[in-house]
# Entry
Amino acid sequence: MNHNKQQSSDLGHDDDAALSDFLASLMDYTPTIPDELVEHFLAKSGFQSPDLRLTRLVAVATQKFIAEVASDALQQCKARQATVVRDKRDKQQKDKRLVLTMEDLSRALHEHGVNVKHQEYFADSPSIGMDPASRDE
Amino acid sequence: MSDGGREIERGPEKPAPPRKPGGEEFARAFVKVAVAQICESEGFQSFQQSALETLSDVTVRYIRDIGKTAHVYANQAGRTESNVFDIIQGLEDLGLAQGFLGASDIEHCLASSGTVRELAQYVGESQQIPFAYSLPQFPVVKDRKLTPSFLQIGEEPPGEHIPAWLPAFPDPGTYAQSSTPNDRTTELKMAKIEQENQRIKPERSLLNLNQWLASNELEGPSVDAGDATKAKQAAESNPFLAAPLQYGEKEVSPVVLPVKTKLSNDTTTGNPIVKYHGMDNHVSVLEAFTPNIEAMKSGLRDSEEGHKKVLLKTRPTVQFKLGSGKKYLGSMLDSSPQNKSFQVTESWFGRLNEKDDKKRRAEQILKESVGNLQELDHL
# Structure
């Protein structure tokens, strides 16, 4: 706590400087989500800002969020693959493509506070109950 | 490889069911592309279709949540435009589920928020992934062509109450009907409406057949000469629109009507006698209605033939002269022919003049009541 108090009293202006620097650096970094798209969805919820940096800030924040979810899902996928592989054809099984599935996604999102429930299976095609990565949707 | 055959890139490209194009479709498609690019940079090689849609939906909700929270904080501070601190607060709110450094600090400057630091870290570390497509500015705002005001046109506004800076009225030709060219169309419309009405009528049940005939006869003379040709044409094509047949034109099987319609029919046909009954006050109600009850009791079996004869004889003379309620008296008496002599007098009445009618009628009623009393004795 002392460190924080010191920061707030003496080096308070440094934080502001850091923030403004960060915002300036945003203009160099192009987020994956384009600005027009972010502006469109922000406008839908009443967000008004003529400052482009703020839009970039939101875009970057969203990108970070998605990246975190995706990395969690990837870890789940790899963990699943590690447990599944038991056959003699080890190498072929491990080289299987990494597919983002609903199961991994729902688990990853659950940690971030988003509850996604999906159907386990629809009994309308012959390929029910197979490995989700390899069945046709 | 058997596995290679089953691999999917982004799900099979089935023809999507035709959906109504909404405003969101365009934006969502781009979000899917962006999300797919991010996932690919993380290491995924393919996705399930539903997983991609779910993640893009979550993305949209995230963006909108940040916007909403930032807007709420700005409003709380009394501003309409959000600034960076509102966004940081919004990010903190959303990041509480996952947690960030310094979340538990009570007093901390927003500028040094853990979320911002993490963001700066992310920006520094991650690679830039440019978006795959170039987006136009959307939604596109259409240029409205405003109606010029009175001043701009140079017109005087009609009426003192209309200020000149208001938009001018449209050209009267666009909304008002001009008289001569449209008369013909209105006439045609009226003819069509009448034809429609005539077409609807035959759909009524047989029970209302007589009423329909009577009303149709009444409406006959109202058809204009101008529509006669139309009516003829329609009649030729549609049998329901043909003019009704007069009595005797076509050989028809006798109609068997239930008691109710028989009564209504007789109100229209027993007219020469109807006029009299306004005077017939001295007949007691019980006597008057006993034939009524008798007729009901005897049912159709006895009175069928009599009804038929009554109908066929008196059908052409349709005179609507509805008197007081006491017409039932006459009609009931007409319709209960317990003896054939009554029927003869019935037809005979049509030829006599009024005063004689009243006399005969009085006698008839007395006879009838006597006859009924005898019947009552039988019962």
